[in-house]
Amino acid sequence: MSAPDNMRLNISASLASVAIAGVMVALKLWAFGATGSLAVAASLADSAIDLMVSLGAMAALIYAAKPADEDHAFGHSSAEDLAALGQAFFVLVSAGVITWAAVTRLLTPGDGHLEREGPGMAVMGVSVVLTLGLVWWQGRVAKRTGSRVVAADRLHYMGDLLPNIGAFVSLWASHSFGLGSIDSVVALGAAGVLVIGAARIGKGAFDALMDRTADPTIVDGIAKIAAEWPGVHGYHDLKTRTAGSRVFVNLHIELDGSQSLHEAHAIGASLRRAILEAYPQTDVIIHKDVTKDER
Q1: Considering only CA atoms, which of 114, 78, 106 is closest in space to residue 212?
Q2: Structural domain span for residue 274
Q3: Does residue 119 share a domain with residue 227?
Q4: How many domains does the chain have?
Q5: CATH code, domain with 74
Q6: Quick one: 202 and 242 in the same domain?
């Protein structure tokens, strides 16, 4: 599949996530106003965050395609990490507000009454179905294009199924058994899920901004390719760093000093292509040195 085809598929997945997140925000906003359910409020906050994340993912896909320029020699992918830090902060604030409201309702007798649970359950059921459909489509796109941005967005929506199902269960329990307090308990659980997600997103973004090395499996895979490549007598100074969805790789390979510059270049170029094929998210720079015995 060509790069333009991959880009179109990735954009289609991002547009789908933005559209579905927007629909779910509108539906849950109505459901929260109708029911007063804190579990629905937690799910609403999660969907609002989803909308932000999906918009950011779509912008990242478009922005990541922008070539490096004079002021950004390594491209613009670090903007993804800056956006992720802002999103993580917003998630933590939302979780704090939901926790405060849930604890206050639990400590206030008679303040957990819900209304119009039936329509609220219908909205949450629709949300679950829409989320399942989106996750299915994003999975197909990520598998075909290898996009880490789409894969990460899919993982985020898979995690959103828990708050949606939890809100449905709390409304059902209130409607069937009059257990309004379950709503606050579910809201606290959903807030915990939001905190865990925010911590994960924030840590990943912070590590990338601090030039943390790439995933060890990627580093080991690149090292294995270099060590076994024909014409390469050794390698050293393999260094990596992450920026957004990109992984930047610097690698020194040792070559026979008696061969021509053309032959040395061909070995380095073919090795670079092999690394890019195995790890499409990488940006690879290879330095060519003579073997240690010839120094």
Answers
A1: 78
A2: 216-294
A3: no
A4: 2
A5: 1.20.1510.10
A6: no
Residue 220 burial class via C-beta count within 10 angstroms: exposed 0-12, middle 13-18, buried 19 and up: exposed
Please choose, from the candidates 23, 18, 100, the residue with its C-alpha nearest in 3D space to the C-alpha of residue 53: 18
User: Sheet containing 234-243: which strands, arranged edge to edge?
Assistant: 234-243, 246-255, 282-290
Find residue 285's DSSP bridge partners: 250
Examine the domain organization and report whether 80 and 123 are in the same domain: yes
Enumerate helices (H) and strands (E) in the chain, giving the number of each.
8, 3
Ranges of the chain whose pLDDT falls below 70: 1-7, 38-39, 42, 61, 63-84, 87, 105, 108-120, 146-149, 151-153, 155-156, 158-164, 166-167, 170-171, 174-184, 244-245, 293-295
CA distance 109 to 295: 81
Name the one residue in this structure whose structure tokens are 């240690």: 292
107-141 burial code (b ≥16 CB/10 A, e <16): eeeeebebeebeebbebbebbbebbeebbebbbeb
Which amino acid would we find at residue 261? L
Beta bridge partners of 287: 252
Token pair in block for residue 239: 């260094």
Same-domain check for residues 174 and 275? no
Please state the separation of Cα 121 from the chain's center in Å.
28
Within a 13 Å sphere around the CA of 60, how many CA atoms are in the beta-carbon half?
26
pLDDT at position 175 is 63
Q: What ranges in 178-209 are assigned the alpha helix state H?
A: 181-209
Q: What is the dihedral of CA 256, 259, 260, 262, to 10 degrees?
A: -60
Q: Are residues 170 and 230 in the same domain?
A: no
